[in-house]
Write a structure and sequence with these properties.
The chain is an all-alpha fold. Helices cover about 75% and strands about 0% of the residues. The longest helix is centred in the middle third of the chain and has 22 residues.
């Protein structure tokens, strides 16, 4: 669903838990930032989400690829496909709105947006189902302009 292709069953079983790493860190950081009402921490998470949308690997995937995997003896994570990059783009917008709400003093709105983000971010961590990637796949099936984009 997240656009990772070319992985055999062994690679999927080995890397599956580590594909949850970036969303888990994001959810944890946003939960902390929401509890603290921390605009700087939210801005940092916005930056990582934006990078995840535009570069081949999310910054937190790089922590795994260049560090953790050498300790665990597992293989590297593949580059993010279009569905996962779309999820990061959605996260960038959502977290930007959350940051704006806190910065503007709309604390309740910030807490609602931040809390809802944490819930949605925890879905792939707990289930391997990514809500934004699902919508990307659905849009790409329904839109002639999106044909062929879903795997890249």
């Amino acid at each position: 669903m997240q656009g990772f292709s070319g992985l055999d069953d062994r690679a999927v079983s080995e890397l599956g838990p580590w594909l949850r790493f970036a969303p888990a860190i994001c959810a944890g950081l946003v939960a902390l930032a929401t509890l603290l009402g921390s605009v700087p921490l939210l801005m940092a998470v916005v930056a990582t989400a934006l990078l995840g949308a535009v570069v081949p690997h999310h910054p937190f995937d790089l922590l795994y690829n260049y560090g953790i995997r050498h300790l665990t003896g597992t293989g590297p994570l593949p580059p993010n496909g279009a569905p996962r990059r779309f999820a990061c783009a959605v996260s960038t917008v959502w977290l930007s709105l959350t940051t704006w709400a806190f910065a503007a003093g709309a604390i309740t709105v910030g807490r609602v947006l931040g809390g809802a983000f944490v819930v949605v971010a925890m879905v792939p961590v707990l289930t391997d189902f990514c809500v934004p990637s699902f919508f990307f796949q659905w849009i790409s099936r329904c839109s002639p302009a999106m044909k062929g984009v879903s795997e890249s």
